[in-house]
Each structure stands twice: as C-alpha cells, then as structure tokens.
C-alpha cells in the first residue's frame, strides 16, 4: 500500500486501540505491519492518538473508541499475565535457574530478593536498635525537660551570685563616711538629685 493511501475504518480502529493500550507509535506501527500486512509510518500513527497534539483532529467516533478501549484496558488487569503473582514468580524462577547455571551469584541474590518481595515474605522495612548518648537509654521529653530546668536553675543561681557580687563590689568601691555608710557623689550638697551644679 502506498504511504498516503487512505486507511480503512477497521485499520484506523486497529491503530487507535493499540495506542489506547499504551503502545508507542513504533510499537503500534510494528503491530500494524504484522496484523495488516503493510507498513505505516510512525509519525502517521501518532495522528490516531487523541491525547497528543497531533491527534487533536481525530474523528469523534475514533476518540470514543480510544477512550473506551483505554478505560477497559486499565480496568481489566487480569488480561495481562505479568500482573499475576504466579506468572511473576514463574518468570523469576526461570531466570533464577539460568543465573545459577551461569554462576551469577549477584543476580541470584537479586532474583531471590525480588521473588520474596512478590511473595510478601520480606519488606523494605528495617529494624534499627536506637540508643541514646554513649549507648545509654534514649532521653524522653520529660527527662529532657527536667535536665533543662535544672540547668536553668543553675544558671539563675549563678546569676544571683554574680548580682550579689556586683552589689558588694559597688559597696566596696564607694567612698565611705565616718559612720561607715557609703557616700554618694555630692553628699552634703544642697542639690539632692545628685547632678553636678
């Protein structure tokens, strides 16, 4: 068939259904050649995908066919053999036998792990032993709160001591009168707000 000859409605439906089942344009063109018997260009196949910009002008009945085929394809997972656990495990078993025969130990380990995941006998969840500082117990929120409060009290006590020391330094540094009481600058002056005149 020449490249630009008009396709029949059945041929168009075949391409639309291939694309609706998530085949690429290359895969759809290959399937078209095998089923129908002649080649069709990959870029021409793209015109039958209404989701793509190139397929926006697709006829309404073919758009409906595309949407119905896609919906049925997504809903009917049982028609895809690899979606079945038994099929997956059988394929892994065959691959495991080949890997063992060839002595490919890393591949054997990977296949056994994959089979265990499919069968549900292992998960990716890891159990870790968690300890606190220096291997001790993990500090709880209450213990942390108590530790923080003790430290704050210690700091407050030091602050009170420092404040008392400052008071004593001030008292010692101030000049004293005969009675032993500290004098303030300007004592004995008529100016009571202690500012120089």
How helix-rich are the residues, as a percent range? Answer: 55-70%
Hey, roughly how much beta strand do the residues contain? under 5%
Mean pLDDT: 80
Largest sheet: none
The string of secondary-structure elements, in order, is HHHHHHH
Number of strands: 0
N→C terminal distance:
118 Å
Silhouette: elongated
Q: In angstroms, what is the radius of gyration?
A: 43 Å
Count of individual helical segments: 7
Low-confidence stretches: none
SSE class: mainly alpha
Structure explained in plain terms:
It is a single chain. The chain is an all-alpha fold. It is built from seven helices and no strands. 56% of the residues lie in helices and 0% in strands. Among the domains are: 9-75; 82-119. It starts with 8 loop residues before the first helix and ends in a 24-residue tail after the last helix.
Describe this structure in a few short sentences.
The protein has helices at residues 9-20, 25-36, 42-45, 60-75, 85-102, 105-119, 141-173.
Write the layout of secondary structure elements.
Blueprint lengths: L8 H12 L4 H12 L5 H4 L14 H16 L9 H18 L2 H15 L21 H33 L24
Helix pairs in contact: 1-2, 1-4, 5-6
List keywords for this structure.
56% helix, 197 residues, elongated, mainly alpha
């Amino acid at each position: 068939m020449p490249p630009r000859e008009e396709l029949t409605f059945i041929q168009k439906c075949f391409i639309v259904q291939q694309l609706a089942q998530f085949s690429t344009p290359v895969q759809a063109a290959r399937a078209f050649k095998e089923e129908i018997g002649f080649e069709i260009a990959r870029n021409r196949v793209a015109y039958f995908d209404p989701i793509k910009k190139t397929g926006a002008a697709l006829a309404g009945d073919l758009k409906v066919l595309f949407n119905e085929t896609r919906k049925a394809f997504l809903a009917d997972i049982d028609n895809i053999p690899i979606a079945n656990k038994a099929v997956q495990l059988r394929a892994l078993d065959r691959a495991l036998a080949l890997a063992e025969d060839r002595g490919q130990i890393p591949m054997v380990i990977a296949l056994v792990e994959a089979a265990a995941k499919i069968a549900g006998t292992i998960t990716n969840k890891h159990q870790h032993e968690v300890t606190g500082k220096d291997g001790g117990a993990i500090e709880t929120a209450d213990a942390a709160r108590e530790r923080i409060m003790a430290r704050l009290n210690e700091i407050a006590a030091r602050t009170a001591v420092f404040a008392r020391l400052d008071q004593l330094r001030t008292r010692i540094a101030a000049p004293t009168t005969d009675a032993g009481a500290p004098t303030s600058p300007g004592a004995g002056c008529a100016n009571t707000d202690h500012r120089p005149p």
